[in-house]
Amino acid sequence: MAMPMTRHRPFGVTILAVLSALIALVNAYHALQYLGLIPFALGPMSFFGQDVLGAALWALNAAIWLWVMVMLWRVDKQGWLFVVIISAMNLILAGLSILGASSFQALLPAIVLNAAALLYCQTPGVKQAFGAA
Question: What is the pLDDT of residues 56-66, one digit of tens each?
Answer without folding.
Answer: 988 999 999 99
